[in-house]
Amino acid sequence: MKQQVYIVHGYTASPESNWFPWLRKELENQGITTTILSMPDSHNPHYENWLGHLQSRIELNEETILVGHSLGCVTILGYLNRLFPKTRIKGIVLVSGFIEKVSTLPELDEFNSPPQDFEHLIPYIQNRIAIYSLNDQIVPFYYSENLNQKLKTEYYAIENGGHFLDRDGFEQFPLIYEKILEIIKN
């Protein structure tokens, strides 16, 4: 089976934002097929539209790695929840993720209403990595820590990463690249 990485951006972002193009280029230089999904109406997202977008564009297999940023994380998990238990995947990398309503982002509440249980997905995701920042002003770190605890992820708490946006200095993100390569070798 062929290695495939899908990147799911977050709220107000696009495939050209942040570290996404850099990561795709680095992975493709290693011969890894990488797709950055262009999520519909990212400035006014709706959960069912985003799930449908993933369902129509992602082909899962045991070599698939899903990378999510912020809203992309809960979208990926909701997508996997819908497919449960049909498919096992190689791994997920969740950056600034959350799986509950975020007080700073009430406009995204529908992505977590009602709250979902994702713990049953653990055996179907071979590698689970979470990366978050201790000074994230958009998704405060304790939301990401809750996600880490529920999904039993390998996690990396970065001191001053902000929300890992280009304006936070993240046009490149070597840690994610390294972790994806480790997942592939695992």
Concise structural overview:
The chain is α/β, with parallel strands linked by helices.
Structure write-up:
It is a single chain. This protein has 5 helices and 6 strands; from the N terminus they run βαβαβαββαβα. The mean pLDDT is 96. The protein has a 6-stranded parallel beta sheet, with helices on both faces. The protein has a single domain (4-185), classed as Alpha/Beta hydrolase fold, catalytic domain (Rossmann fold), CATH 3.40.50. The chain is 31% helix and 20% strand. With 186 residues, the chain is α/β, with parallel strands linked by helices.
CATH C-level category: Alpha Beta
Shape: globular
Q: How is the biggest beta sheet arranged?
A: 6 strands, parallel
* Helical content (DSSP H or I, runs of 4+): 25-40%
Biggest sheet strand order reads: 2-1-3-4-5-6
Instruction: Tell me the distance between the termini.
Output: 15 Å
The helix count comes to: 5
Q: What CATH architecture would you give?
A: 3-Layer(aba) Sandwich
